[in-house]
């Protein structure tokens, strides 16, 4: 692709680094910004810069947050005896959109995947165990994608949490095997949360 400006070429190259964005889409986005008011583009630039420099991760659940403790963990209206374990922030957002869950979360930051070199030590597992030591938690729900990596992670966590006298459940498998949680429709996902089953039962 030939560019009439080095500045244009550099901007397109940066946008093309985003997932799912090819050069043609990147060029369309850059040209769109060029046609916007300078102040509007500055606001866009500032928002991205502040996101990268000021974003925090909740010290309790590891969800993306503006503060050290996220709004969900800080809320007295949430059921703190119920922890839903998810892969990342996108899954928190997906479950919150169902309006079917009133507990708190624990974001692992990934799934166990030996093929990708990701092991338990790379995930927020130890902090999950720490959260259970004060005996305030009554149930842990595994809400992980129905993939090989998701099932491997659930199997590992189940063994890790057996030392605690808590209920361990997993979302009902109205979600097809191989399905990514973030792409499941809200009705199916909400129903899976409500009709969750004991993890041991899901093995049969």
TrEMBL record:
In terms of SUPFAM superfamilies, this protein maps to:
Recombination protein RecR
What Gene3D superfamilies does the record tag this protein with? Answer: 3.40.1360.10, 6.10.250.240, RecR Domain 1
Q: Which parts of the sequence belong to the Toprim domain?
A: 81-176
UniProt cross-references to Pfam families, sorted A to Z: RecR_C, RecR_HhH, RecR_ZnF, Toprim_4
Query: What's a Gene Ontology MF term here?
Result: DNA binding
Q: Which domain of life is it from?
A: Bacteria
The alphabetized list of GO BP terms reads:
DNA recombination; DNA repair
Q: Which InterPro entries does the UniProt entry name for this protein?
A: DNA_Rcmb_RecR (IPR000093), Rcmb_RecR (IPR023627), Rcmb_RecR_Znf (IPR015967), TOPRIM_dom (IPR006171), TOPRIM_RecR (IPR034137)
- Zinc fingers (C4-type) at which residues? 58-73
The cross-references to SMART domains, in alphabetical order and at most eight, read: TOPRIM
Q: Which family does it belong to?
A: Belongs to the RecR family.
Q: Which HAMAP family match?
A: RecR (MF_00017)
What protein name applies here?
Answer: Recombination protein RecR
Name of encoding gene: recR
């Amino acid at each position: 692709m030939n560019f009439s400006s080095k500045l244009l070429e550099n901007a397109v190259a940066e946008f093309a680094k985003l997932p799912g964005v090819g050069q043609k889409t990147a060029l369309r986005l850059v040209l769109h910004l060029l046609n916007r008011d300078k102040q509007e583009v500055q606001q866009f630039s500032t928002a991205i810069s502040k996101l990268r420099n000021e974003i925090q991760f909740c010290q309790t659940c590891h969800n993306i947050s503006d503060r050290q403790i996220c709004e969900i963990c800080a809320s007295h209206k949430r059921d703190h005896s119920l922890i839903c374990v998810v892969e990342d922030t996108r899954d928190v957002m997906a479950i919150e959109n169902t309006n079917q869950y009133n507990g708190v979360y624990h974001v692992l930051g990934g799934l166990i995947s030996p093929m990708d070199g990701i092991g338990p030590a790379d995930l927020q597992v130890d902090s999950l165990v720490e959260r259970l030591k004060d005996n305030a938690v009554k149930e842990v729900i595994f809400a992980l994608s129905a993939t090989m990596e998701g099932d491997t992670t659930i199997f590992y966590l189940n063994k890790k949490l057996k030392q605690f006298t808590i209920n361990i459940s997993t979302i009902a498998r109205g979600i097809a095997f191989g399905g990514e949680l973030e792409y499941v429709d809200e009705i199916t996902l909400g129903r899976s949360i409500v009709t969750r089953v004991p993890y041991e039962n899901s093995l049969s």
